[in-house]
Write a structure and sequence with these properties.
It is a single chain. The chain is of the alpha/beta class. Helix content is 44%, strand content 15%. It has a 7-stranded parallel sheet with strand order 3-2-1-4-5-6-7, with helices on both faces. Bound molecules: NADP nicotinamide-adenine-dinucleotide phosphate. NADP nicotinamide-adenine-dinucleotide phosphate (NAP) binds next to helix 1, strand 5 and helix 6.
């Protein structure tokens, strides 16, 4: 059965940023497909809530309060996963993000923080998890949550876009490093209705974004979860180093920011 190739039966997945939004959507999709889930984010109540929903699918769940910016917390996330489940098969580097801001107002510290949040944290956690995947499960898969802003250029996105472009490129690099044991892919996410997007949405901006999106709507977390499930599953066992666009057909960003000298 071809659908069997989309199952994650008895695999163990770590999902960062699993308390809400895209990370929660991916955690629940993986649970529905048969995986046990380690939910990592900073807000205990939110990751506990996701863990409860995972258990409702009959799977095991562990909520580990984690700030991905703290290396020691990444180390204890991996240690607690192995203590609880004895193996790790899948990693989703989803925690990330950064608001758009004009280039000339973007401070050095902000530029570096955007890079650290979106790229370095994913690098550090991947470096910790991949040897454990091979040791405990024999193989594995990593899915990085990148952005269409890391592919298309636009004023106002110098910090976020540059960081996500680096995350996408790192995905391709690491896929080469870790083949054939561990596959590494990314999703170039478009505008998805989450709390993070909500912070920049007004009715007017929402209408403009929809108008500029070929598929004429904003995305839902399930749109991303479906792709993340494919990339993690045996259905994608011949896919590595790819950046899959799930963005309603965008070939240019759908959020317009002013140029520096307009
Ligand atoms: N939504 C979009 O339109 C969109 C578009 C392109 C790409 N993306 C990407 O998709 C990913 C998720 O975005 P989202 O829209 O789902 O955001 P969201 O709804 O704000 O959720 C973000 C999740 O990440 C967690 N998080 C934030 N800072 C963290 C930290 N330092 N350590 C650990 N966890 C942290 C949050 O929980 P705590 O605050 O409790 O830690 C929350 O669970 C990001 O990488 C973002 O760049 C989103």
């Amino acid at each position: 059965m071809i659908l069997d190739r989309f199952r994650l039966t008895d695999q163990v997945a770590i999902v960062t940023g699993a308390g809400r939004g895209i990370g929660q959507g991916i955690a629940l999709a993986y649970a529905e497909a048969g995986a046990d889930i380690v939910c990592a984010a900073r807000t205990p109540a939110q990751i506990e809530e996701t863990a409860e929903q995972v258990r409702a699918f009959g799977r095991r769940a562990l909520a580990v309060p984690t700030d991905v910016l703290e290396r020691s917390q990444l180390e204890s996330l991996v240690a607690r996963t192995l203590d609880e489940f004895g193996r790790v098969d899948l990693l989703v580097n989803n925690a990330g993000g950064w608001p758009p801001k004009p280039a000339l107002r973007t401070r050095e510290k902000e530029f570096e923080e955007a890079f650290r949040f979106n790229v370095t944290t994913a690098f550090l956690l991947t470096r910790l998890v991949v040897p454990k995947m091979v040791e405990t499960a024999g193989a594995g898969a990593v899915v990085n949550i990148s952005s269409v802003a890391g592919r298309e250029i636009s004023p106002g996105f110098v910090a976020y876009g540059t960081a996500k472009a680096a995350l996408s490129f790192m995905t391709r690099e690491l896929a080469q490093d870790f083949a054939p044991k561990v596959r590494v892919n990314a999703i170039a996410v478009g505008s998805i209705e989450t709390e993070a997007l909500g912070t920049v949405l007004t009715d007017e901006i929402r209408e403009e974004m929809i108008r500029l999106t070929p598929m004429a709507r904003l995305g839902q977390v399930e749109d991303i979860a479906a792709c993340a499930l494919y990339l993690a599953s045996p259905a994608a066992s011949y896919v590595t180093g790819e950046i899959y666009g799930v963005n309603g057909g965008l070939v240019a960003l759908n959020m317009k920011m002013p140029r520096a000298f307009e």
